[in-house]
Design brief:
By secondary structure, the protein is an alpha/beta fold. It is about 40% helix and about 15% strand. It is built from eleven helices and nine strands. The radius of gyration is 21 Å and the shape is elongated. The structure holds adenosine-5'-diphosphate.
């Protein structure tokens, strides 16, 4: 092997140098640390944009571990995760995929929205989630035993409630789970004010609006306004964009194509600004 081609730290690109801003909502930090101590595979469930990814970034930084994040989608293949042979000047050479890098060298691997991946892709994680903690690279004929610091975290949004997009019980029962939701009102206000650099008063008004939209979930809206959307709206308002235009762009149009639901959302915006 040509050692000069082996990077000193294959996970250098995945290290988090600066402390990510994370405002805890409950006991999630302590609970996660217990799960980490045992390297339990972890499932984070909760609506989109409520802080799951930021939490994982913060925990990886706190524990001093590199973080390999992969947003799952239906075009993703097992090779995209584990790696493949690629042609280079010397012929074909094996390239570890991001999951293999994490398993081999000891990173936290975060598979965001894991239900978006096809079943034949998700099965590759099964042997990593039980006592074996290993990853078979079938094409290469290698069995990679996980580094002691490897941990697998997956996220999923139970709100979509489509059976095609549900996590299979055979996958799901392999994980310890932490439930996330939008943060409590005061905490969410603090987060929105911080992230959008707006006043607490404006952030509080946005958060009150979001909480009303979340009540529309029983009336046909798949999801209410997320913390992320509030931050986008706040950023536009800080730039001087009219509050109604800001909310229309970042909330109403983003959430629904349905005329009646859009009307209901606009009425809530009008009552708030
Ligand atoms: P998810 O992964 O659940 O879809 P994110 O973690 O990407 O959501 O959260 C969306 C945005 O909301 C983040 O980029 C961050 O700005 C903000 N955010 C949400 N929750 C928190 C929190 N508890 N502390 C700090 N920022 C948060």
């Amino acid at each position: 092997m040509n050692l000069s081609e082996t990077p000193a730290d294959p996970l250098a690109a995945y290290r988090i140098a600066e402390q990510p801003y994370y405002r805890p909502s409950a006991r999630e930090v302590a609970l996660y640390e217990h799960a980490w101590r045992h390297r339990l595979p972890l499932l984070l469930k909760g609506p989109t944009g409520c802080g799951k990814t930021r939490f994982v970034e913060y925990m990886a930084w706190k524990l001093g571990r590199p973080l390999v994040t992969l947003a799952c989608n239906e075009d993703m293949t097992a090779a995209d995760l584990v790696g493949r042979y690629l042609l280079d000047t010397d012929g074909t050479r094996w390239h570890d995929g991001p999951l293999t890098l994490a398993v081999r060298h000891g990173a936290i691997c975060y598979l965001d929205e894991v239900v978006e991946a096809r079943q034949d892709t998700t099965v590759v994680i099964h042997p990593l989630t039980d006592a074996r903690r290993m990853l078979p690279l079938d094409k290469k004929g290698e069995l990679v035993h996980a580094h002691p610091d490897f941990q697998l975290i997956v996220s999923y949004n139970p709100g979509y409630q489509s059976s095609a997009k549900d996590l299979k019980p055979s996958t799901r029962q392999r994980f310890a789970a932490l439930a996330f939701d939008y943060p409590p009102q005061e905490v969410e206000t603090e987060i929105v004010a911080h992230e959008a650099s707006i006043t607490t008063e404006l952030a509080a008004r946005l958060v009150r609006l979001a909480r009303r939209t979340r009540e529309l979930r029983q009336q046909g809206l798949d999801e209410g306004v997320s913390t992320r959307m509030l931050i986008y709206a706040g950023q536009l308002m800080r730039d001087g964009v009219d509050p109604r235009d800001s909310c229309d762009m970042t909330m109403t149009q983003a959430l629904t194509d349905d005329h009646d639901l859009a009307g209901a959302l606009r009425a809530l915006v009008d009552a708030s600004f």
